[in-house]
Amino acid sequence: MRQVWRNERGMALAVAIFALVVVGALVAGALFLGTQEQRVGENQYRLGQSFGIAEAVAPEFMRQWNTDSFNARRFYPTDTVKLGNRSYGARGWYTGYVFKLNRNLYLFDLTGSDTTTRSGSLAFRRRGGGGRSRLGILARIRPLQIPAHASLTTQGNVTLSGNAAVDGTDQIPNPSWTTCAPPDTTKAGIRMAPTGTVNTSGNAYVEGDPPVLKDPTVADSTFNVFGDVTYADLANRANIRFVGSQNLSTAPVTTPTGQCDRTVKTNWGDGLNRAGACGNYFPIIHIAGDVTLNNVQGQGVLLVDGDLWVQGSYEFFGVVIVKGRLRTSGGGTSVAHFWGAVMAQNVDIELNNISGNATLNYSKCAIIQALEWTGLGAMMRSRSFMALN
Amino acid sequence: MHPVGRRGFTLIELLVALVLLGIVTVGIYRVLVSNQRMYHAQTQRIELQQNIRAAATILPAEFRELAASEGDIYALSATDIRMRAMRQFGVLCQEPILGGLLSGLPVIVFQGLHNGPPIEGGDSVLLYYEGDEGSRNDDAWWPGRVRSLPSPAAAPCPNGSSGIAFQVDLQNPPPAGMLNRAGAIPRGGPMRGFQAVRYALYQSPTDNLWYLGLDVFSPATNAWSGIQPLVGPLSGSGGLTFAYFDANGVVTATPASVALIEIRVRARTPKPIQRSGTGGGLATPVDSIVTRVALRNNRRF
C-alpha cells in the first residue's frame, strides 16, 4: 500500500521565496537607479536643447528687428511686449517678454523648450520630464553714426539770400518735445569741404561755433557710409518709398479710431505735436528722384537720391540726406524748415520771401529721436547675455 | 505491521537533502553577491557620472557669462581660475545723481525685474554706463559696492512701482574714459551683481582625494573664505584642467584676451568596485568629459 505523508516540513520553498524577494529588491533598486539616471540624462539633453533654442532666438530678433513692435513701445513697466508660444522650426518652442527699459535699451526675457517637453503629456511634465531654459538678452539701439556735427554738412558751395539762416545752436524743436535732454554745446552752422564757399546776401546769416567749419574729412563717404550702415542699407530699410520726381504735401493722418494711419504714404509723422497719434511715428522715407515738398510737415529720416526743394512753410524734424542739391524758398509762418541735421552733397540754397525766421536749425534731440525711432537693435556692446532664474 | 505513524528520514535521504540544499544555497548566495556587487558598482558609476555632469553644468554656466575683456577674469592657470561670477540682475528705475558723487550713490531698481538673490550690503555690482547716448562706443560698466548702511530695502520707484533702494560706492576714481556726469548712468540702465570666486583643483586634507574646489571672496573680511570641495572625487592631480583660447583660437595666458575656455574633468568613483570577469580584484573606474565654452559677454567691437 502506498504511503501518503501529510506533515512534510521542507524549507526549500521558503528559501527560494526569500531569495527571490532579495534578488527582486536588488534588481528593482538597480532598475530604479538606472531609470533615474536615464531620466536625468534625458533631461540634461533636453535642457541643452532648450538652452540652444533660447540662445538662438535672440539673434533672430536682432536680425529682424521690428521698429513698430519694439521702438514704438513705452518704457517698462507701462508697456511690455508678450511673445506668445512660438515654434522654432522642428527643434522646439520659445516664449517670453520684451521690455523697453529706456530710449536705447531693451531686455529680452526668453524661455526655450525642446519639442519633446513642449508636446509631452501632463504626467510627463509632472514627474519632472523635459527641460526649459530662461535667458535674458540686453539689446541696445544701434545708432547711425551720422556725423551731424553741424546744422548743414555739404560738399558744394552754399548761397544764402533773403532772410535765410543756418544755425548750429542746439535747439529743442517745440514744447511738445518733452523728453529732450538740455541743449548740448553749439555746433558749426555749416560744415563743408575746404574748397567750398559760403555767400550771404540780404539779411541771411550763418551762426554756430564756428559759423562755417572747413573740414578736410568731408568726402563722398560722409554722405554714404554711417558707421556700419550705408546709404543703400538705409534706403532698403525705408518704410515709405517714392520713385521718380515727386511734388508732395505730407501731414499726419489718423484712422477713424484715432490711431496713426501708417498706411498713408504721405503721413510722415507729427513733429509739430509729439503728443498726437503720430507723434512717435518716425518713418524712413526714400525718394528715388527729385522731390518738392510744400506743406505741411514730416519727421524721421529723409533720403533723397536727387534734388530736394522745400517750399512754403514745410517743416521736417530729424535727419535729411540729399544726394543732389538742396533748395529752399518761402518759409511762410513756420519757424524753420529743418530741425535736426541736413546733409547735402551739392547745395545751392536760395531763399526768397522768408519772414525773418531761421531756416535750418541744429537739434540734437530731433536727430537722436529720429535715429532712436528708426534705429535697429543689436546686442549690447558687452554683458548682453545672462542666465535668469 | 502498519506504516502509519512512521517518522524521520534515513541517513541517505538526509545527506541527499543536505547536499541539494547546499548547492541551492551556494547558488543563491552567488546570485545575491553578484547582484549586490552590480548594485554597488552601478551606484558608484552613477555617482561618477553625476559628478562629471555637475562639473560640466556648473563651470560652463559660470564661464558663459564672463566678460574677459571687461576684466572679469582676475587670474588664470591650468588648474585655477579667479573670476567674477554673475549672481544678480536689476534695472534702475531712476537716474542716480552723478556730477561728482561717487560714494553713497542712491540707486533704486525695479522689484519686478530683479533676478537672483536679494541685494545685500557689501555686494559687488556693475552699473551700466551709457555716456553719450548717441554712441555705443563709450558704453561700459562701472564697478561699485553696495553700502551696508542703510540696508537695501523696499522703496517705491518714482513712477510708483515697487523698487529696492540702496546706496552704491562707485570705484574711485572713475575708470579710464568714463566721465562722472549727469545722465551717464541712465534710468532703465541694467545692473549686475557679482561674486568674486575661485574654481580650482583641490586636494582635501581629510581624505586626500582631489576635488573641484570653490572659494568665495568675502567683502566683509576682504579675504578669500577658504576653498571647499564642490565636485568629486576627481581622478587625481590631473583631474581638472583649463585651457584658454583667444578670439583667434590661439592659446592665451592673458586674462583679458580669453574668448573660449576648454574644461577637462576626469573623475573617479568615490569607492572602488569589483572588477567584472574572472580576474577579480578591486578597481576605481574613471570617466572624463571635455567641453568648450565660448564667453558670451566679451566686448563685441
Describe the structure.
The complex is a heterodimer of chains A (389) and B (301). Chain A is built from five helices and 24 strands. Chain A is of the alpha/beta class. In chain A, strand 12 and strand 13 (229-230) form a beta hairpin. The longest helix of chain A has 52 residues, at 12-63. The relative contact order of chain A is 0.14. By secondary structure, chain B is an alpha+beta fold. Chain B has one helix at 11-64; strands at residues 73-77, 80-91, 105-110, 124-129, 140-146, 153-156, 162-170, 190-203, 210-218, 223-224, 228-234, 240-245, 260-268, 273-274, 282-283, 286-294. In chain B, strands 1, 2, 3, 4, 5, 6, 7, 8, 9, 10 and 11 form an eleven-stranded antiparallel sheet that branches. In chain B, strand 14 and strand 15 (282-283) form a beta hairpin. Classes of the chains: A alpha/beta (389), B alpha+beta (301). At the A-B interface, helix 1, strand 4, helix 5 and strand 24 of A face helix 1 and strand 2 of B.
